[in-house]
Specification:
heterodimer, A: about 270 residues, mainly alpha, MetI-like fold, B: about 300 residues, about 75% helix, about 0% strand, cell membrane (chain A), MetI-like (chain A), transport (chain A), Carbohydrate ABC transporter permease (chain A), MetI-like_sf (chain A)
Chain lengths: ~270, ~300
């Protein structure tokens, strides 16, 4: 028994270090003065910390504008994804209907689909529709990517809330909509918030579609990819950019930790 | 169960069809038709038609396959997938089993190991760049240990196998978390009595894991493999940050043909190739992992 415990904690320590160390190192690099980053011998722990590197990144052309673009795209994506997918999630939780299995299967297929490659034909179509290089165009693709996730969380949230409460409200004189709005929805808020937050991460992180579908209105990942590919951005810009992109993830995964298994748990059976 | 209640209320007692669920599902289906099915058809049509005349042609596929980068892109994508995905599944399974022992502190460990789910391929590339670049942390550590005098250049075309190793390492670090979460969700569906029963009949821990847990985990393993493999075919930002175009991959070539060479047709040919690869690998996994007659399905 003792041996087993040592094995478990030993393995947890090794794996935990493997995941955590690179995160700490990029944070360290982001606050290391520029000249130390290029020094040799390179000190493992910098002699001094400074905001230089981060400020250089934040002051680079286009960074603020594209960060704002990223946030707007993520906001639009959350709105669109909820408008489109939340009713489906509710229907899958509350109703039994012919074709339900097919709907669930097609949502699973979408999750497994190499969706980013659809950016090419969409770019061609968006040029015709006047959506090319617009934030709403990017948000539409991100919505397509996030629909499966929003649907599964919303379904699991409403499965977890007893329908009897809604029924009780209806016997007390509410109509169905009112019962939903006053009774069920308030209980669903934490789960729905988790779905919104995850949608934000998905959109904030998405690189390929954003790079293909924008030209001047870059999102942050698209701007960084562009500056790496065509401009050969310096290392300190890359480290600071990497750290800046990672920061929200640490907070967000913590906020939605209860729903992680729901997001990915549905399988092919 | 809520479903049963709703059914009693809306379905069984009334003879006519209740249209509400269809109405609720409609927006999703409509949206996916326009932004999934239409572009997929459009990708195929772009890849096989001549833009000015609209005539059927294989020219774009010929242009794609005669390009110098094409063979390399196919080879590197398949090599990276074939090495990275099994490693991710093995490590993901190990972490999921470890979390499932519910040792003290397993929730913190789960949060930590799930963190990379929120990290983009681009950011992960930057993170490992800070470790593996010439004046990076790895060289600093090696120098401190007295193993090297001058920095070793890991990320160079002169050592393509090191570039590949860097990409695979980064993908392993970033994407294992998704596999782990899928497998953990699957593990938690397996009733505890199964393992207990196996123990009563004298099975050791390994035998239980091998002959009871793993077979029951098959649907989750299958899903994890399909999702990871298809995502590996779309590998883009990690490669761009660590290797540029020195290691060409399929999604990268799609990007270069669209943005650099301004040829949506050849880019679509690449997109169709990725679609076909993804569809075939899914079919293979479903076929290989299909339960044989007489096996229990959970």
């Amino acid at each position: 028994m003792r041996v087993r415990l040592v094995g478990i904690y030993g393995a947890a320590l090794v794996i935990g270090t493997w995941v955590a160390a690179p995160l700490l190192l990029i944070a360290l690099a982001a606050f290391t003065p520029r000249n130390i980053l290029y020094e040799w011998p390179r000190p493992l722990w910098p002699r001094a910390f400074s905001l230089d590197t981060m400020l250089f990144f934040l002051r680079s052309t286009g960074v603020w504008a594209s960060t704002l673009n990223s946030v707007v795209v993520a906001g639009l994506t959350i709105g669109l994804a909820f408008l489109i997918a939340a009713p489906t999630g509710y229907a899958l939780a509350r109703y039994r209907f012919r074709g339900k299995g097919a709907v669930q299967l097609s949502i699973l297929v979408v999750k497994m689909f190499p969706a980013t490659v659809l950016s090419i034909p969409l770019a061609v179509a968006f040029i015709r529709w006047g959506l090319y290089d617009t934030l709403i165009g990017v948000a539409i693709v991100h919505t397509a990517l996030s629909i499966p996730f929003v649907t599964v969380i919303v379904t699991s949230v409403f499965v977890g809330i007893s329908y009897e409460l809604e029924e009780a409200a209806m016997t007390l004189g509410s109509n169905r909509l009112r019962a939903f709005l006053r009774v069920t929805l308030p209980m669903a808020v934490p789960g729905l918030a988790a779905a919104a937050i995850f949608t934000f991460v998905l959109s904030w992180n998405e690189v390929f579609a954003a790079t293909i579908l924008t030209l001047d209105h870059r999102t942050l990942p698209a701007l960084i990819v562009d500056s790496v590919i065509s401009a050969g951005a310096p290392l300190h810009f890359r480290f600071a950019g990497g750290f800046f992109m990672v920061m929200p993830a640490v907070v967000i995964i913590f906020l939605i930790r209860r729903y992680l298994l729901t997001l990915w748990g549905v399988t092919v059976r | 169960m809520a479903i049963a209640d709703a059914e009693a209320l809306t379905g069984v007692t009334r003879a006519r069809v209740n249209w509400t669920p269809y109405l609720l599902v409609l927006p999703t289906l409509a949206f996916l038709s326009v932004f999934f099915i239409y572009p997929m058809a459009q990708a195929i049509s772009l890849a096989v038609t001549d833009p000015p005349t609209g005539a059927l042609t294989w020219a774009h596929f010929r242009r794609m396959s005669s390009d110098l980068y094409f063979g390399q892109a196919v080879r590197f994508t398949l090599i990276i997938t074939a090495i990275a995905v099994p490693l991710q599944v093995a490590l993901g399974l190990a972490i999921a089993l470890l979390v499932n022992t519910r040792f003290r502190g397993h929730t913190v460990f789960l949060y930590l190991t799930a963190l990379p789910i929120g990290i983009s391929d681009l950011a992960a590339g930057m993170i490992w760049l800070s470790i593996l670049t010439e004046r990076g942390y790895l060289n600093a550590a090696l120098q401190r240990l007295g193993l090297i005098e001058q920095p070793v250049v890991f990320l160079t075309l002169e050592r393509p196998e090191w570039l590949l190793a860097a990409i695979i390492l980064t993908e392993l670090w970033r994407a294992t978390a998704i596999v782990m979460v899928i497998l953990l969700a699957g593990l938690q569906l397996i009733p505890k009595d199964y393992a207990e029963t196996a123990a009563v009949f004298g099975a050791g821990r390994w035998q239980t894991a091998r002959h009871v847990i793993l077979p029951l985990l098959r649907p989750s393993l299958q899903t994890a493999l399909i999702i990871r493999t298809i995502l590996a075919f779309q590998l883009f930002a990690t490669v761009v940050t660590l290797a540029g175009r020195q290691i060409p991959v399929l999604a990268g070539e799609t990007y270069f043909w669209y943005s650099l060479y301004r040829s949506p047709s050849v880019a679509s040919a690449y997109a169709v190739l990725i679609l076909l690869l993804s569809a075939s690998i899914t079919w293979i996994y479903l076929y290989v992992f299909a339960p044989k007659a007489g096996e229990v399905r959970l």
